[in-house]
Amino acid sequence: MLSIIIPAYNEESRIGTPLKEFRSLWGDAELIVVSDGSTDRTIEVVKKIWPEAKVIEIQNNIGKGFAVRQGVKEATGDIICIMDADGAAPPDEFRKLQQALTHCDIAIGCRPTSGRTFIRNLVGKCYGLIVRFTTGLKVKDTQCGFKVFKKDCAKEIFNACRVDGFGIDVESLLLAQHFGYKVTEVPINWREIPGSKVNLVKDSWRMFWELFKAINTVKRGMEDGRIGLSASVSAGHN
Ligand SMILES: Nc1nc2c(ncn2[C@@H]2O[C@H](COP(=O)(O)OP(=O)(O)O[C@H]3O[C@H](CO)[C@@H](O)[C@H](O)[C@@H]3O)[C@@H](O)[C@H]2O)c(=O)[nH]1
């Protein structure tokens, strides 16, 4: 079974299209939408299109990372897909990531760079370089909002995650690297959808701070034994 987790903050105008598209192809999936502090009709739109959806509503706005962690806790599917609410990833791209899971634990979309504004591209490239330099991660597109995990691996990783904002994308991959999970990047089609919630000034600072925090959390977790090799990897099941 597939669980789809969507962190959503004031997404009434964007979430409808991807929900309709995904429902037509993956209608049996368990959909979990996590909204923290949305002040618009996001939840109504979700319930109208996908009445069986599990909706987690939190009163205050905390951030995408916090929302994703709550969603993963609730997920029961064997495969967990975490995706953005804007519908940038066409639904049939899921097949490519699902196929990749036959030889890895985490498959993440790798987006074409066309379609983004110059400044967004520049900030994204600088952030990516700093991430690779400070963490040794080999992943090119850590921030892609379309990622698929095997269930146990998602549960272990997100249970150890601590950051609440957009830094979760890097923290989860950093933990995957430390636990010894195999990550594959898969080139996917992508549609740039207007209406991003990312504030280039405020969120960039927060993402750098969360990168620093994630590196430290992993380091401390390894020192105190909270973070070690994953149970399945150390048992040789991988
Ligand atoms: N629950 C919740 N969800 C949030 C919040 N902030 C953003 N989100 C959700 O996070 C997703 C990504 O936000 P977008 O508004 O679509 O921004 P984007 O520019 O397309 O995001 C890109 O950059 C982010 C930062 O690098 C990436 O995290 C994201 O996956 C994507 O690549 C959307 O589903 C949005 O609703 C929040 O505070 N709470």
UniProtKB/TrEMBL annotation:
It is a single-pass membrane protein. It catalyses: a di-trans,poly-cis-dolichyl phosphate + UDP-alpha-D-glucose = a di-trans,poly-cis-dolichyl beta-D-glucosyl phosphate + UDP. Pathway: Protein modification; protein glycosylation. Its EC number is 2.4.1.117. Residues 3-158 form the Glycosyltransferase 2-like domain. GO terms for molecular function: dolichyl-phosphate beta-glucosyltransferase activity. GO terms for biological process: protein N-linked glycosylation. Pfam families: Glycos_transf_2. It comes from the Bacteria. This is dolichyl-phosphate beta-glucosyltransferase.
